[in-house]
Amino acid sequence: MEDQSSKPIRCKAAVCRAAGEPLAIEEIVVDPPRAYEIRIKIVCTTLCHTDITFWQAKVAPAFPRILGHEAYGVVESVGEHVEGFAAGDAVVPTLLSQCDHCPSCASEHNNLCSSVPITLAPGMRRDGTTRFRDAQGNPLHNLLAVSSFSEYTVVDVTQVVKVDPAIPPKIACLLGCGAGTGVGAAWRLAKVEPGSSVAIFGLGSVGLAVAQGAKMCGASKIIGVDLNPEKEKVGEAFGVTDFVNPTQIDKSSVSEVISEMTGGGVDYSFECVGLPSVMTDAFRSTRTGNGKTIILGLGNQTDLLCVPALELLFGKCLIGSALGGIKPKTDIPILAEKCMSRELELDGLVTHEVGLREINTAFDLLLQGKSLRCIIWMDK
Protein backbone atom coordinates (compact mmCIF):
# COMPACT_ATOMS: atom_id res chain seq x y z
CA MET A 1 0.00 0.00 0.00
CA GLU A 2 1.29 3.46 -0.92
CA ASP A 3 2.42 5.58 2.03
CA GLN A 4 0.16 8.64 2.30
CA SER A 5 1.83 10.13 5.36
CA SER A 6 3.84 12.67 3.40
CA LYS A 7 1.02 13.64 1.05
CA PRO A 8 -1.96 15.97 1.39
CA ILE A 9 -5.30 14.33 2.23
CA ARG A 10 -8.64 15.29 0.74
CA CYS A 11 -11.51 15.02 3.20
CA LYS A 12 -14.71 16.63 4.42
CA ALA A 13 -14.86 19.48 6.91
CA ALA A 14 -17.44 21.89 8.30
CA VAL A 15 -16.24 25.33 7.21
CA CYS A 16 -17.40 28.62 8.73
CA ARG A 17 -17.26 31.28 6.00
CA ALA A 18 -18.58 34.24 8.02
CA ALA A 19 -19.51 35.13 11.59
CA GLY A 20 -22.76 33.55 12.73
CA GLU A 21 -23.48 31.80 9.43
CA PRO A 22 -24.34 28.08 9.20
CA LEU A 23 -21.30 25.88 8.60
CA ALA A 24 -20.88 24.40 5.12
CA ILE A 25 -19.70 20.83 4.54
CA GLU A 26 -16.90 21.16 2.01
CA GLU A 27 -14.13 19.07 0.53
CA ILE A 28 -10.84 20.43 1.80
CA VAL A 29 -7.14 19.54 1.61
CA VAL A 30 -5.17 18.81 4.77
CA ASP A 31 -1.41 19.11 4.38
CA PRO A 32 0.97 16.53 5.84
CA PRO A 33 2.43 17.22 9.29
CA ARG A 34 5.60 19.25 9.46
CA ALA A 35 8.31 18.90 12.09
CA TYR A 36 6.89 18.39 15.62
CA GLU A 37 3.36 17.88 14.24
CA ILE A 38 0.86 15.03 14.13
CA ARG A 39 -1.91 14.46 11.61
CA ILE A 40 -4.98 13.00 13.30
CA LYS A 41 -8.00 11.19 11.89
CA ILE A 42 -10.85 12.59 13.97
CA VAL A 43 -13.32 9.95 15.19
CA CYS A 44 -15.68 12.30 17.01
CA THR A 45 -15.82 15.86 18.23
CA THR A 46 -18.20 18.07 20.20
CA LEU A 47 -19.46 21.63 20.18
CA CYS A 48 -18.38 23.83 23.09
CA HIS A 49 -19.53 27.34 24.07
CA THR A 50 -16.00 28.49 23.26
CA ASP A 51 -16.61 27.47 19.65
CA ILE A 52 -19.79 29.58 19.72
CA THR A 53 -17.81 32.58 20.97
CA PHE A 54 -15.36 32.35 18.06
CA TRP A 55 -18.18 31.56 15.58
CA GLN A 56 -19.92 34.77 16.65
CA ALA A 57 -16.61 36.65 16.22
CA LYS A 58 -16.64 37.89 19.83
CA VAL A 59 -12.97 36.89 20.14
CA ALA A 60 -10.15 36.93 17.54
CA PRO A 61 -12.33 37.00 14.39
CA ALA A 62 -10.82 35.21 11.36
CA PHE A 63 -12.73 33.70 8.45
CA PRO A 64 -13.04 31.34 6.65
CA ARG A 65 -12.30 29.05 9.54
CA ILE A 66 -12.58 25.44 10.70
CA LEU A 67 -13.82 25.47 14.29
CA GLY A 68 -13.77 22.71 16.92
CA HIS A 69 -11.28 21.90 19.65
CA GLU A 70 -12.81 19.10 21.77
CA ALA A 71 -12.23 15.75 20.08
CA TYR A 72 -10.95 12.18 20.02
CA GLY A 73 -9.09 10.53 17.18
CA VAL A 74 -6.27 8.26 16.05
CA VAL A 75 -2.83 9.21 14.78
CA GLU A 76 -2.65 9.00 10.97
CA SER A 77 0.96 10.15 10.55
CA VAL A 78 3.70 12.07 12.34
CA GLY A 79 6.23 14.66 11.22
CA GLU A 80 9.95 14.82 11.90
CA HIS A 81 11.21 14.92 15.49
CA VAL A 82 7.96 13.50 16.88
CA GLU A 83 8.65 10.96 19.61
CA GLY A 84 6.28 8.76 21.59
CA PHE A 85 3.50 8.66 18.97
CA ALA A 86 2.83 6.28 16.10
CA ALA A 87 0.09 5.70 13.55
CA GLY A 88 -2.96 4.12 15.20
CA ASP A 89 -2.46 5.63 18.66
CA ALA A 90 -5.66 6.79 20.38
CA VAL A 91 -5.32 10.50 21.16
CA VAL A 92 -7.08 13.59 22.46
CA PRO A 93 -5.99 16.97 21.05
CA THR A 94 -6.04 19.92 23.45
CA LEU A 95 -6.00 23.71 23.22
CA LEU A 96 -3.10 23.90 25.69
CA SER A 97 0.45 22.78 25.01
CA GLN A 98 2.68 20.77 27.34
CA CYS A 99 6.32 20.51 26.25
CA ASP A 100 7.58 19.18 29.62
CA HIS A 101 10.84 21.15 29.25
CA CYS A 102 10.10 24.85 29.83
CA PRO A 103 9.97 26.44 33.33
CA SER A 104 6.16 26.67 33.15
CA CYS A 105 5.71 22.96 32.41
CA ALA A 106 8.25 22.10 35.11
CA SER A 107 6.27 24.11 37.67
CA GLU A 108 3.60 22.35 39.71
CA HIS A 109 1.56 25.57 39.74
CA ASN A 110 1.57 26.54 36.04
CA ASN A 111 -0.15 24.76 33.14
CA LEU A 112 0.52 27.39 30.46
CA CYS A 113 3.51 26.19 28.43
CA SER A 114 5.92 29.05 27.68
CA SER A 115 7.80 27.14 24.98
CA VAL A 116 4.76 26.66 22.71
CA PRO A 117 2.33 29.20 24.21
CA ILE A 118 -1.40 29.32 23.56
CA THR A 119 -2.70 32.06 21.31
CA LEU A 120 -6.25 32.93 20.28
CA ALA A 121 -5.06 34.03 16.85
CA PRO A 122 -5.25 31.47 14.02
CA GLY A 123 -2.22 29.53 12.81
CA MET A 124 -0.01 26.71 14.02
CA ARG A 125 1.80 27.65 17.22
CA ARG A 126 5.35 27.37 15.88
CA ASP A 127 5.10 29.17 12.53
CA GLY A 128 1.64 30.80 12.35
CA THR A 129 0.72 29.04 9.11
CA THR A 130 -2.28 26.82 8.33
CA ARG A 131 -2.48 23.19 7.20
CA PHE A 132 -5.93 23.61 5.59
CA ARG A 133 -6.93 24.66 2.08
CA ASP A 134 -10.31 24.67 0.40
CA ALA A 135 -11.09 23.02 -2.96
CA GLN A 136 -9.86 26.13 -4.80
CA GLY A 137 -6.55 26.12 -2.95
CA ASN A 138 -7.36 29.06 -0.69
CA PRO A 139 -6.13 28.88 2.91
CA LEU A 140 -8.56 28.11 5.74
CA HIS A 141 -7.85 29.39 9.24
CA ASN A 142 -7.69 26.99 12.18
CA LEU A 143 -9.02 27.39 15.73
CA LEU A 144 -6.78 27.13 18.79
CA ALA A 145 -4.40 25.13 16.59
CA VAL A 146 -6.80 22.15 16.74
CA SER A 147 -9.78 22.54 14.34
CA SER A 148 -11.59 19.27 14.97
CA PHE A 149 -14.62 19.92 12.72
CA SER A 150 -12.72 18.11 10.00
CA GLU A 151 -12.20 14.44 9.20
CA TYR A 152 -8.44 15.07 9.47
CA THR A 153 -6.47 17.77 11.26
CA VAL A 154 -2.86 18.61 12.08
CA VAL A 155 -1.89 19.42 15.67
CA ASP A 156 1.41 20.24 17.36
CA VAL A 157 2.90 17.30 19.28
CA THR A 158 2.76 19.33 22.49
CA GLN A 159 -1.04 19.51 22.12
CA VAL A 160 -1.68 15.79 21.67
CA VAL A 161 -2.39 13.43 24.57
CA LYS A 162 -2.20 9.65 24.20
CA VAL A 163 -5.05 7.83 25.99
CA ASP A 164 -6.05 4.25 26.67
CA PRO A 165 -7.91 3.00 23.56
CA ALA A 166 -10.33 1.21 25.90
CA ILE A 167 -11.99 4.47 26.93
CA PRO A 168 -15.20 5.19 24.97
CA PRO A 169 -14.42 7.80 22.28
CA LYS A 170 -17.25 10.14 23.28
CA ILE A 171 -16.04 10.22 26.90
CA ALA A 172 -12.40 10.75 25.94
CA CYS A 173 -13.58 13.54 23.68
CA LEU A 174 -15.10 15.46 26.61
CA LEU A 175 -11.84 15.42 28.55
CA GLY A 176 -10.08 17.60 25.99
CA CYS A 177 -11.88 20.73 27.14
CA GLY A 178 -15.26 20.95 28.93
CA ALA A 179 -15.13 17.99 31.31
CA GLY A 180 -11.38 18.31 31.81
CA THR A 181 -11.82 21.98 32.67
CA GLY A 182 -14.65 21.41 35.15
CA VAL A 183 -13.24 18.40 36.96
CA GLY A 184 -9.74 19.84 36.90
CA ALA A 185 -10.87 23.15 38.41
CA ALA A 186 -12.18 21.37 41.49
CA TRP A 187 -9.52 18.66 41.68
CA ARG A 188 -6.28 20.31 40.59
CA LEU A 189 -6.81 24.07 40.86
CA ALA A 190 -9.09 24.65 43.86
CA LYS A 191 -8.05 21.39 45.53
CA VAL A 192 -11.50 21.01 47.07
CA GLU A 193 -11.23 19.39 50.49
CA PRO A 194 -13.45 16.68 52.01
CA GLY A 195 -16.41 18.13 53.91
CA SER A 196 -16.12 21.54 52.25
CA SER A 197 -18.83 23.63 50.60
CA VAL A 198 -18.98 24.59 46.92
CA ALA A 199 -21.12 26.92 44.78
CA ILE A 200 -21.26 26.52 41.01
CA PHE A 201 -22.63 29.38 38.92
CA GLY A 202 -23.95 27.95 35.65
CA LEU A 203 -24.88 24.28 35.33
CA GLY A 204 -23.87 23.72 31.74
CA SER A 205 -21.37 21.04 30.79
CA VAL A 206 -18.45 22.71 32.57
CA GLY A 207 -20.46 23.47 35.71
CA LEU A 208 -21.77 19.91 35.93
CA ALA A 209 -18.23 18.62 35.48
CA VAL A 210 -17.18 20.87 38.37
CA ALA A 211 -19.90 19.20 40.44
CA GLN A 212 -18.49 15.78 39.57
CA GLY A 213 -15.00 16.94 40.48
CA ALA A 214 -16.18 18.41 43.79
CA LYS A 215 -18.08 15.23 44.59
CA MET A 216 -15.00 13.16 43.74
CA CYS A 217 -12.97 15.33 46.15
CA GLY A 218 -15.48 14.77 48.97
CA ALA A 219 -17.32 18.11 49.15
CA SER A 220 -20.35 17.77 51.44
CA LYS A 221 -22.41 20.70 50.11
CA ILE A 222 -22.51 21.49 46.38
CA ILE A 223 -24.82 24.39 45.50
CA GLY A 224 -25.85 24.82 41.87
CA VAL A 225 -26.91 28.28 40.68
CA ASP A 226 -28.80 28.53 37.40
CA LEU A 227 -31.68 30.46 35.82
CA ASN A 228 -33.10 27.29 34.26
CA PRO A 229 -35.32 25.45 36.79
CA GLU A 230 -34.80 22.18 34.89
CA LYS A 231 -31.13 22.24 35.89
CA GLU A 232 -32.08 21.39 39.48
CA LYS A 233 -32.91 17.79 38.56
CA VAL A 234 -30.05 17.58 36.07
CA GLY A 235 -27.61 18.78 38.69
CA GLU A 236 -28.66 16.14 41.21
CA ALA A 237 -27.39 13.43 38.88
CA PHE A 238 -23.93 15.01 38.95
CA GLY A 239 -23.69 15.55 42.70
CA VAL A 240 -25.40 18.91 43.25
CA THR A 241 -26.98 18.87 46.74
CA ASP A 242 -28.74 22.27 46.73
CA PHE A 243 -30.12 24.54 44.02
CA VAL A 244 -30.63 28.31 43.75
CA ASN A 245 -32.54 30.01 40.95
CA PRO A 246 -31.69 33.77 41.05
CA THR A 247 -35.14 34.65 39.69
CA GLN A 248 -36.88 32.89 42.57
CA ILE A 249 -35.16 34.25 45.68
CA ASP A 250 -36.49 36.52 48.41
CA LYS A 251 -33.13 38.04 49.32
CA SER A 252 -31.64 40.94 47.40
CA SER A 253 -28.73 38.93 46.04
CA VAL A 254 -27.61 35.37 45.37
CA SER A 255 -24.59 35.88 47.60
CA GLU A 256 -26.86 36.65 50.57
CA VAL A 257 -28.85 33.47 49.96
CA ILE A 258 -25.69 31.36 49.77
CA SER A 259 -24.23 33.03 52.86
CA GLU A 260 -27.39 32.15 54.79
CA MET A 261 -27.36 28.56 53.50
CA THR A 262 -23.75 28.01 54.53
CA GLY A 263 -23.32 30.15 57.63
CA GLY A 264 -21.08 32.75 56.03
CA GLY A 265 -20.37 31.66 52.47
CA VAL A 266 -18.91 28.70 50.61
CA ASP A 267 -15.31 27.57 50.72
CA TYR A 268 -15.08 27.39 46.93
CA SER A 269 -17.04 29.15 44.20
CA PHE A 270 -16.85 28.44 40.47
CA GLU A 271 -18.09 30.81 37.75
CA CYS A 272 -18.95 28.90 34.57
CA VAL A 273 -20.98 31.49 32.63
CA GLY A 274 -18.55 34.17 31.45
CA LEU A 275 -20.44 37.27 32.64
CA PRO A 276 -18.66 39.85 34.85
CA SER A 277 -21.78 40.34 37.01
CA VAL A 278 -21.95 36.60 37.71
CA MET A 279 -18.23 36.54 38.49
CA THR A 280 -18.83 39.23 41.11
CA ASP A 281 -21.74 37.24 42.60
CA ALA A 282 -19.55 34.15 42.75
CA PHE A 283 -16.77 36.07 44.52
CA ARG A 284 -19.14 37.61 47.07
CA SER A 285 -20.61 34.17 47.83
CA THR A 286 -17.36 32.87 49.33
CA ARG A 287 -16.33 32.77 52.95
CA THR A 288 -14.30 35.59 54.53
CA GLY A 289 -10.77 34.54 55.41
CA ASN A 290 -10.14 31.77 52.92
CA GLY A 291 -12.85 31.67 50.24
CA LYS A 292 -11.63 30.82 46.74
CA THR A 293 -13.38 31.85 43.52
CA ILE A 294 -12.33 30.16 40.28
CA ILE A 295 -13.28 31.82 36.97
CA LEU A 296 -13.96 29.33 34.18
CA GLY A 297 -16.40 31.23 31.92
CA LEU A 298 -15.09 32.85 28.73
CA GLY A 299 -16.30 36.41 28.36
CA ASN A 300 -15.78 39.06 25.69
CA GLN A 301 -12.37 40.65 25.10
CA THR A 302 -13.56 43.99 26.47
CA ASP A 303 -15.19 42.66 29.65
CA LEU A 304 -13.93 44.09 32.95
CA LEU A 305 -14.39 42.49 36.37
CA CYS A 306 -15.27 44.54 39.45
CA VAL A 307 -14.99 43.08 42.95
CA PRO A 308 -14.95 44.79 46.39
CA ALA A 309 -11.29 45.47 47.24
CA LEU A 310 -11.98 45.19 50.97
CA GLU A 311 -13.16 41.59 50.58
CA LEU A 312 -9.84 40.75 48.92
CA LEU A 313 -8.08 42.33 51.89
CA PHE A 314 -10.11 40.06 54.19
CA GLY A 315 -8.61 36.92 52.69
CA LYS A 316 -10.81 36.03 49.75
CA CYS A 317 -9.02 34.77 46.66
CA LEU A 318 -9.88 35.14 42.96
CA ILE A 319 -8.25 32.71 40.51
CA GLY A 320 -8.26 32.64 36.73
CA SER A 321 -8.00 29.34 34.95
CA ALA A 322 -7.19 27.81 31.58
CA LEU A 323 -8.42 24.23 31.14
CA GLY A 324 -9.19 24.05 34.86
CA GLY A 325 -5.52 24.19 35.77
CA ILE A 326 -4.78 20.68 34.47
CA LYS A 327 -1.62 19.76 32.61
CA PRO A 328 -3.03 17.95 29.55
CA LYS A 329 -0.47 15.18 29.05
CA THR A 330 -0.18 14.53 32.79
CA ASP A 331 -3.80 14.77 33.92
CA ILE A 332 -6.07 13.75 31.02
CA PRO A 333 -4.87 10.10 31.15
CA ILE A 334 -5.59 10.12 34.91
CA LEU A 335 -9.09 11.48 34.31
CA ALA A 336 -9.63 8.84 31.62
CA GLU A 337 -8.77 6.14 34.18
CA LYS A 338 -11.19 7.64 36.68
CA CYS A 339 -13.93 7.55 34.02
CA MET A 340 -13.27 3.89 33.25
CA SER A 341 -13.30 3.01 36.97
CA ARG A 342 -16.58 4.98 37.35
CA GLU A 343 -15.03 7.29 39.91
CA LEU A 344 -16.13 9.98 37.49
CA GLU A 345 -19.56 9.70 35.82
CA LEU A 346 -19.54 11.89 32.71
CA ASP A 347 -21.87 9.93 30.44
CA GLY A 348 -24.79 12.19 31.31
CA LEU A 349 -23.05 15.15 29.68
CA VAL A 350 -23.75 13.62 26.27
CA THR A 351 -27.34 14.52 25.45
CA HIS A 352 -27.32 14.30 21.64
CA GLU A 353 -25.34 12.65 18.82
CA VAL A 354 -25.24 13.62 15.14
CA GLY A 355 -23.10 13.12 12.05
CA LEU A 356 -20.80 15.74 10.55
CA ARG A 357 -23.40 16.72 7.94
CA GLU A 358 -25.85 17.57 10.75
CA ILE A 359 -23.35 19.76 12.62
CA ASN A 360 -25.60 22.84 12.38
CA THR A 361 -28.18 20.90 14.40
CA ALA A 362 -25.62 20.78 17.21
CA PHE A 363 -25.34 24.57 17.04
CA ASP A 364 -29.13 24.97 17.19
CA LEU A 365 -29.44 22.63 20.18
CA LEU A 366 -26.74 24.42 22.16
CA LEU A 367 -27.97 27.92 21.33
CA GLN A 368 -31.52 26.95 22.34
CA GLY A 369 -30.30 25.48 25.62
CA LYS A 370 -31.52 22.00 24.69
CA SER A 371 -28.21 20.16 24.89
CA LEU A 372 -25.19 19.81 27.15
CA ARG A 373 -22.76 18.13 24.78
CA CYS A 374 -23.69 16.94 21.29
CA ILE A 375 -21.26 14.34 19.95
CA ILE A 376 -20.49 14.82 16.25
CA TRP A 377 -19.39 11.57 14.61
CA MET A 378 -17.31 11.75 11.47
CA ASP A 379 -18.55 8.46 10.01
CA LYS A 380 -22.22 8.61 11.03
From TrEMBL:
Family as reported in the entry's similarity comment: Belongs to the zinc-containing alcohol dehydrogenase family. Class-III subfamily.
Catalysed reaction, written as an equation: a secondary alcohol + NAD(+) = a ketone + NADH + H(+); a primary alcohol + NAD(+) = an aldehyde + NADH + H(+)
PROSITE patterns the record matches: ADH_ZINC (PS00059)
Domain annotation Alcohol dehydrogenase-like C-terminal: ranges: 206-329
Species this protein is from: Panicum hallii var. hallii
Primary location group: cytoplasm
Subunit organization: Homodimer.
GO (cellular component) term, any one: cytosol
Protein name per the record: Enoyl reductase (ER) domain-containing protein
ATP-binding is among the record's keywords: no
A matching Pfam family: ADH_N
Obligatory cofactor(s): Zn(2+)
Location relative to the cell: Cytoplasm
